[in-house]
């Protein structure tokens, strides 16, 4: 994964890495499709009008092979034919000036207009057909994937850690309204969808119904809650993790359908408060939360050889909590609680697989 870079004036986090080919399924400019098309049509009209004006002022250098007289309709006809084709030979430039104008002024305009025609055809027809085809192929293989709504700072870190935990980049779909962020996501190897994550159409394209988890980190609590509501409406069983900033909105996010709510300001406050009285607790907790740390916190089902034993007798790592039949068994019960089939264990262990930690 690329490393996190610096922010620019727009508070955009950039990825410092050598760009590689990725997927950007939907790319749009600052203008709507109708505005873009109107601008290009207007540009073509202006260029054709320029050609007509040039030919009209130099009409004495043209010769009509039919009647020998060059009228304005003839100029209009000749300009259109010259711009769109190489002409039919019924009207021809005969003077040196007319031929130079045709060679060095009209020909570049003709080429430029054809570029406009071809570019418009590609953008409005060919590219959309290709993107729809690629999207349909990707959707066929999207099962048990992760959808990340928002690719800001928190979203990027979440994606980075998710990949570090073993999830392939191509199994992570990033949704964002920023074309720049989607480009960065694609360069990092993710599937990028440019659009509003509150839109049912965009979420359906991301196949949230078959996703393993949807992470919502839009940067605004109201938007995050709306995305959570929309995802839950589309899929009752998909796990949703929401990033909420304001304390009073945590309950709303849970009521909206979030399975887990993470509050970065709240977590940061806890860590800073610990740092007031301790020097090593905060670095240890940060190390524990990061995949690249020396110790890792994992959640796993109870192993077969651990069933029937106490938490303190677990064979791999330090069991700090057990979730059994909807109850959270704390570390203080490690000598009393007997591990049952189906229990989920929260375990702290060495990132290097050194086995059972000391002092359990």
UniProtKB/TrEMBL annotation:
Keyword tags: Ion channel, Ion transport, Membrane, Plasmid, Transmembrane, Transmembrane helix, Transport
Record's bilayer topology term: Multi-pass membrane protein
Source organism, top-level taxon: Bacteria
SUPFAM superfamilies per record: NAD(P)-binding Rossmann-fold domains, Voltage-gated potassium channels
Subcellular location field: Cell membrane
Source organism (scientific name): Azospirillum argentinense
GO biological process, one term: monoatomic ion transmembrane transport
Residues that span the membrane, as ranges: 37-57, 69-89, 109-130
InterPro entries named among the record's database cross-references: K_chnl_dom (IPR013099), NAD(P)-bd_dom_sf (IPR036291), RCK_N (IPR003148), Trk_Ktr_HKT_K-transport (IPR050721)
Main location: membrane
Protein name: Potassium channel protein
GO cellular component: plasma membrane
Residue ranges of domain RCK N-terminal in the record: 143-263
